[in-house]
User: Fold Glyoxalase/Bleomycin resistance protein/Dioxygenase superfamily from Rubellimicrobium thermophilum DSM 16684.
Amino acid sequence: MRPADDPALPPAVEPGPTLRELVWGVERAADLAILADRLGPAARREGEGLHSRDPTGLALGFRVMAREAAPVRLRQRNQGDHRGRVNERLSAYGSPPALRIVHCAYNIPRAANEAALAFWCGPLGFKPVDKVLDTGTFLQAEGDVEHHNFFLCFRPDRAGINHIAVELWDFDAVMEAGNRMIEAGWKESRRPGRHRLGSNVYRFVHAPCGGRLEFVADMDRMDKDWQTRVWEKNPGHNIWMIRSSGPDPAGTGD
Ligand SMILES: [Fe+2]
Assistant:
């Protein structure tokens, strides 16, 4: 995060705090050369990286990223006759680590959607996983298996940041991370639940750097055999969402 008036930042596509440059990691320097070739005059080299803009003006960066393997932590589970965890108690994660930024969701006015899709699916090589004709398009980066790494989300008035999603270990980690943010004074922006497209559990809080922050776990993964699904209407945002029968101001459940 940097101050909005930092002269080193690319111009903003919307007023207020927002995403000023979206930087993508690539595996090898050769990948940068391929992207530079595909983007042609729309890209410029700077230092070790490559820079461009999408059709809405959003600044994009590409650089070789030495990605460290995220620590996998799978809790053993008990269910019926299955005894996965015996003589062992669970404890809170406390401060579960972010495994990685797993996707960015970007608001796109409908009139600008086709040009944006042509850019992201053309020279950038993204693949639509789910195309929802009244909502937006979930796009997967070339070579990845996540349900989406970028989501072009319809919004009538302007392009700009919608949210950045961070992957955590599991459901408990997502709930605990949200609690920690709320304890620190951040505001939750929707009730926790599990998405229908992507299947991930989620928790959203408003972010001071613009848009929202989404904590995510257990998202669908689609490999190269996945065929794009086209939905006339959004099949629904959630498989389930937390409902409450009434306020519990103390939050103790007593
Ligand atoms: Fe998301």
Summary: The two ends are 41 Å apart (CA to CA).
